[in-house]
Amino acid sequence: MNSRVLLVEDEKNIARFIELELRHENFDVVHVISGREGLEAAKTHDFDVVLLDVMLPELNGIEVCRRIRSFSQIPILLITARDAVIDRVAGLDAGADDYIVKPFAIEELLARIRSVLRRASKLNHETARLQIKDIIVDTDAHTVKVAEQNIELTKTEYDLLVYLMQQKNRVVTRDLILENVWGYLADIETNVVDVYIRHLRSKLPQHATSYIETVRGVGYVMRE
Question: What domains sit in the chain, N to C, each tagged with a CATH number?
Fold first, then answer.
């Protein structure tokens, strides 16, 4: 299966050049032109790598990178016209895996894409299994077990559990949960999160409150 690339670039000529070269190398490419479109595409579709320009309309690439990192570990390669150390550091601190400076040779871009894909493949192989206490989630098989007992969850319940486990030991607000489980532009109230937390707890063993802790006035956390 061809690797899927999300290209977020507002300069038409550069985007067209990159897209043609990537398709020639058998990548499947989806191109969007704004930071907000890129963020929404990353939330709603599966990609293998994101090529993300820094200077974008609506949301800049650094902010898009930071927000993607709140819900996904997909490889992100920043494309920047600025080679200042502070810009490179800001991108890496936001969660980017690598960066490339304009103008660049297409051979270098392809090499960097292959490099981040190799690292991601190794990491995904190592982290397909999430565990907190006796809850085990296999994200490859899409299964949930508690004390060796299979637990049946809806898609939203499963996504909620996985997100909380990925954020283990970190208190996450209802707004963050809404953004990362239901989508950044979801037009729903934050009390929906409380409803689904109750649903999730009801499907876990009776001591489920020891898994999902309520932090009053803030949100929820799953602790080791």
Answer: 4-127 (3.40.50.2300), 129-221 (1.10.10.10)
